[in-house]
Amino acid sequence: MQINRIYLRIELLIYSLVDMLMHFYIHYFLIFQNCSSDLPLLFFSQQFQSFFILHFLKIMF
To answer: Residue 8's pLDDT is what?
Structure first.
C-alpha cells in the first residue's frame, strides 16, 4: 500500500512538471515570441511565481 502511494506521488510529480513545461511553452510562443528581451522578466513576474507555487502545492497535497 505504501509503495503504491509513492508511485502515485511520483506520477503526479511527472504529470505536473509536464503540465508546467507545456504551459510555459505555450505562454512563451504565444505572448513572448516577438519580444525575446522580455523573457527574463517572465521568471520574476508575480503571476509566474504564483503559478509555480500552486503547482508544487498540488503535488504535495
So the answer is: 81
